[in-house]
Automatic annotation (TrEMBL):
InterPro entries xref list: ITPRIP-like (IPR026250), Mab-21_HhH/H2TH-like (IPR046906), MAB21L/cGLR (IPR024810)
Protein name as catalogued: Mab-21-like HhH/H2TH-like domain-containing protein
The keyword Transmembrane is assigned to this record: yes
PANTHER family (alphabetical): CELL FATE DETERMINING PROTEIN MAB21-RELATED, INOSITOL 1,4,5-TRISPHOSPHATE RECEPTOR-INTERACTING PROTEIN-LIKE 2
Domain Mab-21-like HhH/H2TH-like stretches: 59-142
Key word Nuclease present: no
Domain of life (superkingdom): Eukaryota
Lineage: Eukaryota, Metazoa, Chordata, Craniata, Vertebrata
Places the protein is found: Membrane
Length: 220
């Protein structure tokens, strides 16, 4: 079992500065950016607020899960170095940021589960536009449109906005945008192709002692 330790500096109110992985610096025009902001508690507050405001059968979390799944499945058909760039550009944090930004554009009633396909397409197109414009601002830093109910610390509200895509050049973002739309158009084919047993993780084989224990008859 591998354990990954990530250095973190507490800032208060559930906020942490966390050390960025070395691969996060490749191709970055600002190599001095060695720390990222972890705002998990603020994310949970936002999700709680959305749960209260959105329809009971809201599909916003399903949209995020499906988009993450398509991203991971599509990676199987990509070659290096673009395969790594694909994962770094479309990181889970970038996908969540795109979803949160789109949700606040409203109306939340439009995220009812019956509109799942339409909202998922909206999310894909919104993310494509961000990639083409080379701009997706961090959701919690300097964002004045966040509902007051989320209760952000003052220094987050007053922080300078940060562009999450600034570390990537235009050709990379254009290629990711093209591949994202291609993935969306070919989604049924990609799901069928890369969901086969060949690409699924093998189920761990139980150790010999556990297998023998299961075969032993119960004591009388």
């Amino acid at each position: 079992m591998a354990v990954r330790l990530i250095p973190a500096i507490p800032l208060g109110d559930g906020l942490y500065l966390t050390a960025l992985p070395p691969e996060g610096l490749h191709g970055s025009p600002a190599p001095e950016a060695l720390w990222g902001l972890n705002a998990s508690r603020q994310e949970q507050r936002l999700l709680g607020w959305l749960k209260e405001q959105a329809p009971d059968a809201s599909c916003h979390l399903k949209c995020l899960q499906i988009l993450k799944g398509l991203r991971d499945l599509r990676r199987h058909g990509l070659e290096e170095p673009f395969c790594s760039q694909w994962g770094r550009v479309l990181s889970s944090y970038v996908l969540k940021t795109a979803l949160f930004s789109l949700l606040l554009q409203g109306p939340l009633e439009a995220w009812d589960e019956q509109f799942l396909v339409e909202r998922l397409e909206d999310l894909v197109l919104y993310l494509r536009d961000c990639l083409r414009k080379q701009m997706l601002m961090d959701f919690f830093l300097g964002n004045t449109s966040i509902p007051e109910a989320v209760a952000l610390p003052r220094f987050l509200k007053e922080a300078a906005p940060v562009n999450l895509l600034s570390a990537f050049d235009r050709p990379t973002l254009d290629l990711v945008a093209f591949q994202l739309i291609s993935t969306w158009i070919q989604a049924p084919h990609i799901i069928r192709m890369y969901s086969s047993p060949r690409y699924l993780r093998p189920v761990p084989t139980p150790c010999r002692h556990m297998a023998e224990a299961r075969q032993e008859p119960p004591a009388e």
